[in-house]
Amino acid sequence: MALPSDTDLHAAGLAVDLTGPTLTLTLDKPDRRNSQTPRLWHTLAAIGEGLPEEVRVVVVRGAGACFSAGIDTRLLGPEGIEGESSVFELMHGSDDEVLETIDGYQRGFVWLSDPRFVSIAAVHSHAIGAGFQLALACDLRVVADDVAFCMKEPALGLVPDLAGTKALVDLVGYSRALEICATARYVGADEARELGIATAVVPRAELDEATSDLVEALLASNAGAVRETQSLLQGAGRRDLEEQRLAERQAQLRRFRELVGGA
Ligand code: CAA
Predict the structure, then answer these.
(1) Residue whose CA is at the smallest distance from ligand 1 atom 26
(2) What value does the mean pLDDT take over residues 231-259?
(3) Cα–chain-centroid distance for residue 194?
(4) Where are the beta strands (DSSP E) in the chain?
(5) What pTM was estimated for this model as a whole?
(6) How confident is the model at residue 262 (pLDDT cuts 50, 70, 90)?
(7) Ligand 1 center to residue 156 CA distance, Å?
(8) Exposed site from 3, 14, 95, 181, fewest CB < 10 Å?
(9) Pocket residues for ligand 1 (CB within 6 Å)?
């Protein structure tokens, strides 16, 4: 499968740049603070499906004043947006329709943890609701010192349902995750670093450079070894020690075979 066309990307509020093994995906609707819609989520999923084999790093960033203000709030009310499916209407759908539709939305997020590549969210200013969840979908988060994460959904009568609850609990633990979600408060840069949400915190003016440096460092490592290590680490939480040791041995065997085979 190929990447979506420029026309489809533009209609979804996205811009994509593919330079060598790095795909940069920009949320590109700054006038609306990069708010998100079902069309954007479906297009994200299509990018995941059409990702060229050679891509080793995916960077997700936001154009303009902030990373993302979350769902386009017009979709939560009766007015909706022309050409977009409305969450307000979905609320009145059948059980199967609701479950299936949200599954489709979630697919726009979950591909970002595919161990074929490393994903980095470069986050500045607000990352609210779906914006926070998009940042959480990435493997790493480089954040600017003005970052403001917020899981706003419970304040709006909803739950975070774009696959962000698992990543948040994995990063900060159950109690802190509950407190952050249930109060819908803002988490700033220092706390994000302390909690492990931010992989690095840098001055806002240095966000692009810091992200590029990280991309360069990742690309300098052996591609196959990074992929295998990523799979090992991703699965470590659900394996016991014996299973993890076995997974390490099997991964190393594959590395040996590839290194010797390629010699
Ligand atoms: N949806 C649609 N439009 C939005 C938007 C959103 N989420 N956030 C901002 N905008 C629009 C504003 O309406 C405004 O448009 P106009 O210029 O036409 O008036 C423009 O973007 C600029 O907005 P602000 O003037 O408010 O910009 P700011 O920089 O002062 O503040 C902000 C930025 C803190 C993100 C603020 O806009 C804000 O709080 N937005 C709403 C955030 C929100 O509640 N999002 C929903 C989260 S829940 C979710 O995402 C998950 C879910 O499924 C429910």
Answers:
(1) 33
(2) 97
(3) 20
(4) 14-19, 22-27, 57-62, 118-123, 126-128, 140-144, 148-150, 186-187, 200-202
(5) 0.97
(6) low
(7) 13
(8) 95
(9) 32-33, 35, 65-66, 69-74, 126, 128-130, 152-153, 156, 158
